[in-house]
Amino acid sequence: METRGWLLALWLQGLALLWGRAGIGLAQLSTTASPAPAQACSEFSQKSCEECLKNVSCLWCYTNNTCIDYPIRSILPPSSLCSLSNARWGICWINFEAVIIAIAVVAGLILVSIAVCCCYCCYCRRRSRSGPDEEEERLARKREERRLQSLQRKHERKLKHDEIRKKYGLLQDSDNPYSRFENE
């Protein structure tokens, strides 16, 4: 049970680091991470919030200016102990309500962005599998038109060449293709 309490305290301290104590650095984190004999939180009552919150396991309540032990068994302090709007932990200028709202907004943004990415990826996959799009169809139609025009021109050339061959007697009869060519 003692280990879980320290893990929660470390987690809450990491949360406090995210909310403005990042400038202190890892040196303080490593010194507070090891269990050391600390003063009781009640000794800091009627003093200041900053002095109370130097101890990681303490919670400051603005309603009666008391420093109390953080309730480790529950994630949030119960309202019978101190209301969320008046409870401070880690930083004196931010209350638990703001922390909860901020965490909910960040989590919501992350979930929405994941949902948008998933929908976008599914849409792209479906679109790529659905076959050729309009641009490809237009290009295929143009290609087919050019091929047909080319075949038509080829046929016209063949007819013209056949006329020339017939004019000069070079066209063979279709009845007897092996007939002998006669000079006159």
Notes on the structure:
There is one protein chain. The chain is rod-shaped. Strand 1 and strand 2 form a beta hairpin. The chain starts with a helix and ends in a 17-residue tail after the last helix. The relative contact order is 0.07. The longest helix is centred in the middle third of the chain and has 34 residues. About 9% of the residues have low confidence. A 4-stranded antiparallel sheet has the order 2-1-3-4. It has 184 residues and is of the alpha+beta class. The chain contains 5 helices and 4 strands. Helix content is 55%, strand content 9%.
User: Largest sheet, described in full?
Assistant: 4 strands, antiparallel
Quantity of strands, as a count: 4
Return the structural class. Answer: alpha+beta
Distance between the termini: 122 Å
Q: Count of DSSP helices?
A: 5
Low-confidence stretches: 20-36
